[in-house]
Amino acid sequence: GAVVSQHPSRVICKSGTSVKIECRSLDFQATTMFWYRQFPKKSLMLMATSNEGSKATYEQGVEKDKFLINHASLTLSTLTVTSAHPEDSSFYICSARSHLTYEQYFGPGTRLTVT
Amino acid sequence: AQSVTQLGSHVSVSEGALVLLRCNYSSSVPPYLFWYVQYPNQGLQLLLKYTTGATLVKGINGFEAEFKKSETSFHLTKPSAHMSDAAEYFCAVGANQAGTALIFGKGTTLSVSS
Predict the structure, then answer these.
(1) Tens digit of pLDDT for each residue in A47-79?
(2) Are A106 and B44 a contacting pair at CB < 8 A?
(3) Does A44 contact B90 at a Cβ distance shorter than 8 Å?
(4) 3-state secondary structure chain B
């Protein structure tokens, strides 16, 4: 079946630094990838939709200058949390949508802790 | 626009009892509906999905759900709960449209007691 990977799985960084999270579709091409954020004991909130070769579309309330998204190829999207603050600590999950079947496959998530 | 409402943020059952997790959706286009399970500190695992065709959908671990268009519901059931079923369950709605993300409900925590 389709596999989506995320790297790193866990990251701890200091306030003010930037962190990059990678999302890869390993065995299929994904013209669209999505980034979600999950707070403890909360649901997944869609942050942005990433389309290969174009600018990401951000959901209302998500700062595009803080959460930089790049979808440079059909198998890779990256989320960069810039100038991280402790309130950015969260579980970030990506998903990739197959361009053939429109199925959406989820990565295992990245736990970000900002100290 | 699409949205999901999961009734009951916490459901408790005894081992062997029926599990019923409720999900209602709103969608302006024919919906695709999903149930995911999440164990602590882990990602999402797909339990089952409805896209088209048969409205009663069977998934993994003995779970099933029925799409009822007239009630805009997609409730998840399991005849007999196991201790290992204790987890967070999310209902999600999507559509067969390019670029459409899944929209998730707030989740229901299932507790199973012996």
Answers:
(1) 999 988 888 999 999 999 999 999 888 899 999
(2) yes
(3) yes
(4) CEEEECCCCEEEEECCCCEEECCEEEECCCEEEEEEEECCCCCEEEEEEECCCCCEEECHHHCEEEEEHHHCEEEEEECCCCHHHCEEEEEEEEECCCCCCCEECCCEEEEEEC
